[in-house]
Design brief:
Blueprint: H1 2-17, H2 19-40, H3 50-81, H4 83-88, H5 94-124, H6 132-155, H7 160-177, H8 189-195, H9 199-212, H10 220-239
Helix pairs in contact: 1-5, 2-3, 2-5, 3-5, 3-6, 3-7, 3-9, 5-6, 6-7, 6-9, 6-10, 9-10
Length: about 250
Amino acid sequence: MNTVVKLANLETKMFFRDRLSVFWTFLFPVVMIWLFGSMFSGDMAGPFTFAEVFIPSWIGVNIVTTSFFTLGTVLAGYRETGVLRRYQSTPLQPWKILAAHTMQGTVIFIISALLLMVFGMVMYDLQPPMYIGSTLLALFISILAFFPFALFVTSLAKNTQSAAAISSLFLNLMLFLSGATFPLEMMPTILQYVAKVLPLYYVIQLLRGTWNEAPISEFGFEVGILLAISVVSIVLASRYFKWSDK
């Protein structure tokens, strides 16, 4: 584990040296929340405020962006440039590399989630989660599902450009069709069915629900779906891990 921690620490330092990654991970979600707040904060129907609906949703979106761009695309770049081949000549096993990047991604995600929460509290009077223990468990389950899912999907890419294209496709599909940005009720019926195929839909339902309504025990179906995605993704990510793009 000492090796995993050292590698995760190194990757985290490298991440913070990349200004573009820092912007998309930390500042872009804040800007989007501010834009949507300008449009919808006074027009929310139902029992919940704008912040209670959108902040948990964008925390879920941050799991997706961290999974695909901080983990998946970076590893695809390492594979293409030969970094992973150099690792192969060391005692590092694949699981240690995946574990280190998962640890790094978790740290970065936690920082981004806290930033969104503070922004929501300052700007929109966001209240803490009603069931904070359940919300934290929901976040853990969501990370457990999405991180290996992104690692598996991007492992199928031949190069960094392909991995970035795949990541962008998945992000945009889930961003606009999962209920994260626009209520599902506004969409045609067929798109509402499509939303329920997307993993982010279940993350959002779980986070919104535990934040505002009930403990996680009331969301067994969503938990089951995400855990199933996690198990399948971990198996596939390990099976298709490649040291090089050859």
